[in-house]
Amino acid sequence: AAEKIRNGGLVAFPTETVYGLGANALNAESVLKIFSYKGRPLTDPVIVHILCADDALELIELDEEGVLLFKHLAAQFWPGPLTMVAKAKPIIPSLVTAETGFVGVRSPSHPVARDFLAAARVPVAAPSANRFGHVSPTCAEHVVADLGQHPIIVLDGGKCQVGIESTVAKLDTVAKQVVILRRGGISQTAIANFLESVEELRHFSVVAIKKESHTNENDSSVAPGTLLTHYAPNVDTYLVKLQDSVTPPSMAHCIDLSKAVLIDFKGQLQWLSSSVLAYRDMSVTGDMESAANVLFDLLRWSENVAGVGCVLLYDLSMSSHEHTEAVHDRMFRAASGRRALVARDSLQLYFEDSVSPGQPSASTH
Question: What is the pTM of this model?
Answer without folding.
Answer: 0.88
